[in-house]
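Q: Given only this backbone (412 positions), what sequence would you predict?
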């Protein structure tokens, strides 16, 4: 499932809508809900639930009543009631599933108290809506410049225009309380429209901006995560992680949401472990826990006067000693409960292909000219050795037998 703007672009490269999970056509949106009750027929005496769910920019969803009984389906653009004027949004849910969503979000099921849907958006409404949406980037830039000039400790993360351009919503983040009364006056004079300020959390800002996490994947909050649960440092302690804020914090500056993913599994595994604060009482002395290994089910204990010598015990043996201590009994020493695991001999790795060498690319390649010169020198040396004994060559060897048989000259 993808929208039309996610098709391939020029030269076969992916185009992408670049909306970070808030796609306008509702095809690849992380907030899209599958209507699994769409094909279900209602009983004859039951009327359909006359309310719809409409999504706006930045994942803002609201419920509206349909007083005119318009035929609406998922993906229709509608004009909804707003204060003041009207707003333009997209229908995301219809029918009985809206009732389920309202119960889930603890909203009263009184349709008469919900705002109204005026009509399906006309082409004029869509043109005005698209026109003000194109101005949002410029308005955000100018608003940041005004906030910096006024010296306010805040960051304007996003801007949202209402569908009829009668109001602008500025989303900002701040660590402390900000007095932006003067800022609102400056915005009203600059943009000539009604101003509304909304503070969002740092996690909401990170999910809206998107990015790549330390795991190499896109941020969970910008792809599929829709609710933000509180994350405590105790989650890192239970998982035996180092309490390093640089490693545990995400791009939002808060603790990573993924610390809660495996927390239940660790808590279930720790149920079989004894309390690390409990001391083991033996005749040799009391021993305190120094380290645990959840995956292997092991604990390391050391006597109070011999902290350098650790003794490895299984969780079952440690619980057995604790039960003896509760009965008033003490074992002789921890060494009686140590079980030496047999050492598994690992097969030596055989390098068949030769691709495990880390320095195979360090040697520089030889130049072709040097290779040619070396080959020439080798050929010349071979040819010289072969021609040294050849009589046709220029360097003829001296023939001693020939000189012996030569007759001496007669000087008489």
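A: Predicted residues:
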């Amino acid at each position: 499932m993808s929208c039309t703007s996610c098709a391939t672009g020029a030269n076969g490269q992916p185009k992408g809508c670049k909306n970070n999970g808030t796609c306008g056509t509702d095809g690849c949106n992380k907030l899209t809900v599958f209507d699994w009750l769409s094909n279900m027929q209602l009983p004859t005496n039951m009327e359909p639930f006359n309310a719809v769910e409409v999504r706006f920019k930045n994942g803002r969803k609201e419920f509206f009543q349909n007083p005119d009984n318009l035929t609406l389906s998922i993906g229709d653009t509608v004009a909804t009631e707003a204060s003041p004027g009207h707003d333009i949004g997209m229908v995301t849910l219809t029918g009985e599933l809206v009732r389920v969503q309202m119960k889930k979000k603890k909203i009263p099921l009184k349709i008469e108290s919900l705002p109204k849907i005026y009509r399906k958006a006309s082409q004029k409404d869509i043109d005005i809506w698209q026109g003000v949406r194109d101005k949002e980037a410029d308005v955000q830039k100018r608003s940041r410049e005004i906030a910096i000039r006024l010296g306010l400790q805040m960051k304007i993360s996003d801007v949202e225009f209402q569908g009829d351009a009668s109001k602008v919503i500025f989303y900002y983040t701040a660590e402390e309380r900000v007095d932006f009364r003067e800022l609102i006056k400056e915005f009203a004079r600059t943009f000539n429209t009604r101003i509304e300020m909304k503070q969002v959390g740092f996690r909401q800002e990170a999910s809206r901006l998107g990015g790549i996490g330390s795991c190499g994947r896109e941020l969970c909050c910008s792809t599929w995560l829709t609710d933000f649960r509180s994350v405590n440092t105790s989650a890192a302690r239970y998982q035996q992680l180092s309490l390093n804020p640089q490693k545990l914090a995400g791009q939002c500056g808060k603790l990573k949401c993924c610390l809660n993913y495996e927390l239940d599994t660790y808590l279930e595994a720790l149920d079989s472990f004894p309390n690390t604060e409990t001391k083991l009482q033996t005749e040799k002395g009391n021993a305190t826990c120094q380290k645990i290994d959840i995956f292997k089910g092991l604990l390391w204990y050391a006597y109070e006067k011999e902290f350098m010598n650790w003794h490895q015990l299984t969780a079952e043996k440690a619980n057995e000693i604790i039960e003896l201590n509760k009965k008033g009994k003490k074992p002789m020493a921890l060494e009686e409960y140590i079980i030496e695991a047999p050492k598994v001999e690992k097969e030596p790795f055989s390098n068949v292909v030769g691709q495990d060498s880390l320095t195979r690319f360090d040697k520089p390649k030889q130049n072709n000219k040097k290779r040619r010169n070396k080959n020439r020198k080798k050929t010349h040396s071979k040819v010289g050795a072969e021609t040294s004994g050849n009589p046709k060559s220029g360097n003829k060897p001296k023939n001693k037998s020939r000189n012996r048989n030569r007759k001496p000259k007669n000087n008489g």
